[in-house]
């Protein structure tokens, strides 16, 4: 199931609100995101985000002119 821009905004806000020490963190994030997202989908989305950040920070993401023309950055 694809994530909308609004769901991604809510996800980011929820991550800022519920840190790693929050009990039932993933359940609370799923509730805040809404849209029927399950805890498993929330965790998977988080892990994908972490991998993306690691790729960017390691310099493994290259930008090309075609990315810029198409409005994409990855």
Task: Write up this protein.
- The protein is mostly helical.
- The mean pLDDT is 88.
- The protein starts with a helix and ends in a 5-residue tail after the last helix.
- Helix 1 runs antiparallel to helix 2 and helix 2 packs across helix 3.
- This is Duplicated homeodomain-like superfamily protein.
- GO terms for molecular function: DNA binding; DNA-binding transcription factor activity.
- It comes from Rhynchospora pubera.
- Please state the CA-atom Rg, rounded to the nearest Å: 14 Å
Overall geometry comes to globular
Spans where pLDDT lies below 50 across 5 or more residues = none
| Largest sheet properties | none
N to C succession of SSEs: HHHH
**Annotation field: number of helices:** 4
Determine the fraction of residues in helical runs and give it as a percent range. 55-70%
Mean model confidence by pLDDT: 88
Topology, number of strands: 0
Structural class: mainly alpha
Strand content: under 5%
The span between the termini is 20 Å
Pfam families: Myb_DNA-binding_2
Subcellular location: Nucleus
Keywords: DNA-binding, Homeobox, Nucleus, Transcription, Transcription regulation
GO cellular component, one term: nucleus
What are the defining features of this structure?
4 helices, 74 residues, mainly alpha
Give the structure's gist in a few sentences.
It is found in: Nucleus. The chain has helices at residues 5-17, 25-33, 39-57, 65-69. It is mainly α and 74 residues long.
Topology readout:
Elements: H1 5-17, H2 25-33, H3 39-57, H4 65-69
Helix pairs in contact: 1-2, 2-3
């Amino acid at each position: 199931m694809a994530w909308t821009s609004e769901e991604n905004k809510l996800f980011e806000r929820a991550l800022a609100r519920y840190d790693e020490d929050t009990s039932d963190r993933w359940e609370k994030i799923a509730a805040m995101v809404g849209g029927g997202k399950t805890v498993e989908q929330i965790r998977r989305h988080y892990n994908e985000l972490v991998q993306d950040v690691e790729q960017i920070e390691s310099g493994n993401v290259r930008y090309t002119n075609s990315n810029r023309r198409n409005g994409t950055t990855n």
